[in-house]
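Hallway conversation turned thread

IA: we were arguing at lunch whether anyone had actually written out Sulfotransferase end to end. Turns out nobody had. So, for the record, here is the sequence (323 residues) and right after it the structure tokens. Reply here if something looks off.
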Amino acid sequence: MTDRPRVLYITGWLRSGSTLVGNVLNELPGVVHAGELHYLWQNGVLRAGTNSVCGCGEQVRACSLWSAVLASTGEDDLTALARRMTAAQRRLLRTRHTRARLAELRPGGAAPAPVTAVLDRMAGLYRELAARGGERLVVDGSKYPAEAAALLGRDDLDVRVLHVVRDPRATALSYHRSKQYIDPMSPAASTAYWTAFNLASERVGAAAGGRYLRVRHEDLARRPAEVIGQVMEFAGLDDPSPVAAGGTVLLGPNHTVTGNPDRLTHGAVTIRPDERWRTELPSRHTLTATALAFPLLARYGYPVRAAGRPTPIGKESLRWTSD
């Protein structure tokens, strides 16, 4: 069993491409994409959330990988454990808790016992995944900045934080209509969350130093081999990129615990831009999202007046901190 698993923790707002990144990396030897591991307890064990089937097609508790990982907890009553974990996550690891978790990383700081207890469980899961195929890297797409901040303080884990950003108007369109696995959300609500999650992720990046990388969804879609290569280098993987010329990647089965249903797609997949928001998002919603996200648009290289024009590829859009 790996004593100090390497973990790539993906953060940022939802609908930004974390599932795609994780599934591509999952094609490399010694890499396991766990999906949104934060929801193992709620969706996988309690089956209280949506989209709770493992990426292999089985229910999580029936999956060969996850049944073994859960058995390793040594708990006879997994339901009781899952209820304790979900309660602790809500109480300690929401985005609003990012500042508190970051404060515990400063000299003289220390995580309180309840936080340590949750992190001990998470570290145990990472160790089990590392021992069951993820010996080189475990990818966790949970996207909770407070969780990422807390994990940075663990000496028994090698944690790297990948911050994925997508144009807020594209995420507003994704939430505009109800889907089987997510409820609809107004552009105002979606963009408010977008702002909060990305600002919190930036604070985590400031604390993480060289263990933080930010990429844009749009650059991933338009230069997939290059951006995936940068992510691989950041994560300590020196393999050839699994993305072929033209942006095609061959995806096999995975054991993602939850996430975008696209994680269930196998076979040849071509990564390409999706900017339907330019024509499909109503003008008033575009204006709402633009106005609310305005302070961050320029920072991430998104034009304010973008109707009908593709998002430009910026050299500064992919950032790897080194200090």
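OS: looked through it. The CA atoms of residues 193 and 294 lie 14 Å apart.
IA: good, adding that to the notes. The longest strand covers residues 158-165.
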